[in-house]
Amino acid sequence: MKISPLSTILSTLILGLLSTPSSSALTCVGDQSELSIYVKTDSLAFELSWILERLDMGSWVTVESNPLDSPRTEFNDTYCLEADSTYRWTITDTYGDGILGNDKFSVALNEEEIYSEPRGGWFSSDVTFVTPSDPTGPVQILTFSPSSSPSDSPTASISPSSSPSASFLPSGSPTVFFCDVEEDDILSIRVTTDLWWDRTSWYLDLKNEVTQEYETIATSSFSSAYTLYIDNFCLIPGRSYKWTLTDFVPNRRGNGLECDRGECGYSVELNGEEIVESGKFYGRVVKEIGPVECVEETGFHRVVNPRPGRNQNKRVYCKGLRSVISDTGDDSFCTLPLIDGSGYLYDKCKDSCGASGFGPCAE
Q1: CA atoms within 13 A on the CB side of 241
Q2: Domain formed by 156-291, architecture
Q3: In this predicted structure, what is the pLDDT of residue 106?
Q4: What is the 3-state secondary structure of the chain?
Q5: Phi and psi dihedrals of 347, rounded to 5?
Q6: Range list for CATH 2.60.40 in the chain
Q7: Which of 40, 96, 216, 219 is the most buried (most CB within 10 A)?
Q8: Considering only CA atoms, which of 228, 225, 231, 206 is closest in space to residue 217?
Q9: What pLDDT is attached to residue 124?
Q10: Would you say 117 and 167 are in contact if contact means Cβ atoms under 8 Å apart?
Q11: pLDDT for position 15
């Protein structure tokens, strides 16, 4: 019988260990919650790692971490977490292109999945959550603004839902804030800058119920090109807000985000539903959020004209549209998307299109 050299035996054992899923089987007791983390790495596992942190007296404290340094390997890890505590789990990819192919990750608390891979997303990805006092109770997922580094130490910021303004997080801040998911509206703003990042900014206004004037409650500017910035807010249901994205060039109107030299864009979500999607814009994008007054707006609005052979950048005047609808019955213009991606024509020509059954002022 031929005996293999010791080096061959050791190599075989090491390879076997690398291909075996890692796991830590625990039995949580009392009011502890069980956290299960599953990651299946791609061929570039050396780019991946994750970290689990707990919020303690306003600072993130590392609980566990995993470098995920084995390619094409399934990692299964289980941990017992303290009750009524805030945790953050972050997975990072140093190159930034996420996990390639059919490989993936997921996080479950008490056997309920609370996070999984955003397919095709460039990430540092994280989820912030509060463990229940009873492991059979519901999990509270917190909205947050992701940090540029999971080791940063933020200060917790709790904003009661009765506050007259939005809970604001500057872009890139790791600060955690708490929304009442049953009472508050959750607004998420995502902007990926272009080459001329310093020309772009946005601001969020809240309508004063006494003066009926809009007052700025949050603003954001940017500090680098081709970078994704995410900001989240707790909005008060029933109040009127307005989000404005601007592009400024000295002595002339801006030309929007130019994405022909790299990936860029913007979007706004309200309670998980996209209400503003990326599009070309000239100078600014404006989107009203919350209750709207069903009155006619004036001025020309640029729309995308889907009719073959026509100019895609068509200008429509609300009062003129009202005449067209009244005289010819052609209300098809109402559903045309605005060229800047901030909605549809019925969002601007509220009275005209509302009378025809379109938009938030539909009769």
Answers
A1: 23
A2: Sandwich (2.60)
A3: 86
A4: CCCCCHHHHHHHHHHHHHHCCECCCCCCCCCCEEEEEEEECCCCHHHEEEEEEEEECCEEEEEEEECCCCCCCEEEEEEEECCCCEEEEEEEECCCCCCCCCCCEEEEECCEEEEECCCCCCCEEEEEEECCCCCCCCCEEECECCCCCCCCCCCCECCCCCCCCCCCCCCCCCCEECCCCCCCEEEEEEEECCCCHHHEEEEEEEECCCCCCEEEEEEEECCCCCCEEEEEEEECCCCCEEEEEEEEECCEECCCCCCCCCCCEEEEEECCEEEEECCCCCCEEEEEECCCCCCCCCCEEEEECCCCCCCCEEEEEHHHHHHHHHHHCCCHHHHCEECCCCCEHHHHCHHHHHHCCCCCCCC
A5: -75, -25
A6: 156-291
A7: 40
A8: 206
A9: 53
A10: no
A11: 40
Parallel/antiparallel/unpaired status of strands 241-249 and 252-253: antiparallel
Tell me the C-alpha to C-alpha distance, in Å, between residue 274 and each of 235, 277, 332.
Answer: 16, 7, 23
Cβ pair 194, 226 in contact under 8 A: yes
Q: Provide the pLDDT for residue 120.
A: 40
Query: Which residue has tokens 């009203």?
Result: 288
Provide block-wise average pLDDT over 10 residues at a time, the chain (363 residues): 44 39 62 91 78 82 86 89 89 67 78 71 69 87 46 31 34 42 80 86 89 87 85 86 84 68 85 87 86 82 76 82 81 86 88 86 81
Q: How far is residue 358's CA from residue 106's CA, in Å, rounded to a whole number?
A: 41
Scan for tokens 């979007």, then name that residue: 267
Which residue has 């299946």 as its token pair? 40
Residues of the chain within CATH 2.60.120 domain(s) are: 21-142
Looking at domain 21-142, its CATH architecture is Sandwich (2.60)
Q: In this predicted structure, what is the pLDDT of residue 225?
A: 84
Measure CA of the first residue to CA of the last residue in the chain; give whole Å. Answer: 90
The answer to whether the beta carbons of residues 283 and 246 sit under 8 Å apart is yes
pLDDT at 303: 87
The most distant pair of C-alpha atoms in the chain lies apart, rounded to whole Å, by 98
Q: What is the pLDDT of residue 252?
A: 55
Residue 95: its pLDDT value, please? Answer: 61
pLDDT of 151 reads 34
Please give the pLDDT value at position 223.
82
